[in-house]
């Protein structure tokens, strides 16, 4: 059957109450392992001098460069030595409450399927390359590991308060599309960028997007687009800064946010500390300017 029509082969896999499945690592085909290797090689060439040092160092110490799609059990054995985090297989996107519960217990839910050949560059749902190559390495960094656990716990509270949309923006603009300022210049830590060849270059080098200093309330008010490169990237000073920002009572913040209007993805506000003001040329003609 033409691969184009092939659906995610884990879609009907028996799943547990926590939405995890068996990875069935031995059932990956040589074509699927080869696709991982090509995606890996392409990013490995682009990331030096662009990805943050913590990511590059962690990718090394977790031996992610081994051949083929990693066996989550083996990878978790190596990862848990550093921060106690584990990688658990899921069939695809899982409900928010289940997702937050896993993060709050230092389990990262990673899609077990690999994208089909015809979706090499555009992903409709997070696959094993996005989740394991993009998200897992920084889980070996103690401060980042603590931040993501805290995010999981915050997610459970946000769900109870009906504030998920605000907290999801924090995840989007940091864990998925975050930049960090270093003494060598801006670097990437967001998994959505680190697993995308085009956005790896665009996020740091294109004149289109805004690059604005991270501010928690500003980020939680800022809408985002899921179908293209980001119109604005937020830049943190360190993972310590990110973690420290999370250790505050979000209740008061949510009360504030209820009174504040949302901010459009490409907008600049007077209070922003602007690193680069985008000319948005990339978005013109894409109906996003
Ligand atoms: C808000 C929350 O972060 C987001 O909606 C979710 N992300 C994910 C998810 N499920 C998976 N597997 N991966 C995600 O990144 N469920 C919910
Ligand atoms: Fe992701």
UniProtKB/TrEMBL annotation:
Its cofactor is Fe(2+). It is an enzyme of class 1 (oxidoreductase). Its EC number is 1.14.16.1. Pathway: Amino-acid degradation; L-phenylalanine degradation; acetoacetate and fumarate from L-phenylalanine: step 1/6. Residues 1-289 form the Biopterin-dependent aromatic amino acid hydroxylase family profile domain. The keyword GTP-binding does not apply. GO terms for molecular function: iron ion binding; phenylalanine 4-monooxygenase activity. GO terms for biological process: L-phenylalanine catabolic process. This is Phenylalanine-4-hydroxylase. It comes from Methylocystis echinoides.
């Amino acid at each position: 059957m033409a691969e184009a029509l092939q659906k995610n082969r884990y879609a009907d896999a028996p799943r547990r109450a926590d939405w995890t499945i068996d990875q069935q690592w031995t059932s990956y085909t040589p074509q699927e392992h080869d696709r991982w290797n090509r995606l890996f090689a392409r990013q490995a060439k682009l990331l030096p001098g662009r990805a943050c040092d913590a990511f590059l160092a962690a990718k090394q110490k977790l031996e992610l460069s081994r051949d083929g799609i990693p066996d989550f059990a083996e990878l978790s054995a190596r990862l848990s030595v550093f921060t106690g985090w584990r990688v658990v297989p899921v069939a695809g996107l899982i409900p928010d409450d289940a997702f937050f519960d896993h993060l709050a217990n230092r389990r990262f839910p990673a899609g077990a399927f690999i994208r089909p050949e015809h979706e090499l560059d555009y992903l409709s749902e997070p696959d094993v390359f996005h989740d394991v190559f993009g998200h897992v390495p920084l889980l070996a960094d103690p401060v980042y590991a603590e931040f993501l656990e805290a995010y999981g716990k915050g997610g459970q509270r946000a769900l109870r308060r009906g504030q998920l949309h605000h907290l999801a923006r924090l995840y989007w603009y940091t864990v998925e599309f975050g930049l960090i300022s270093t003494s060598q210049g801006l670097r990437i830590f967001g998994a959505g960028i680190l697993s995308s060849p085009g956005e790896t270059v665009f996020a740091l080098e294109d004149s289109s997007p805004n690059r604005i200093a991270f501010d928690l309330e500003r980020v939680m008010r800022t809408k985002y687009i899921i179908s293209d490169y980001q119109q604005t990237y937020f830049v943190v000073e360190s993972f310590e800064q990110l973690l420290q920002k999370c250790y505050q009572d979000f209740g008061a913040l949510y009360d504030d946010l209820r009174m504040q209007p949302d901010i459009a993805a490409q907008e600049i506000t007077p209070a922003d500390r602007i690193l680069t003001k985008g000319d948005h040329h990339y978005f013109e003609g894409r109906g996003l300017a």
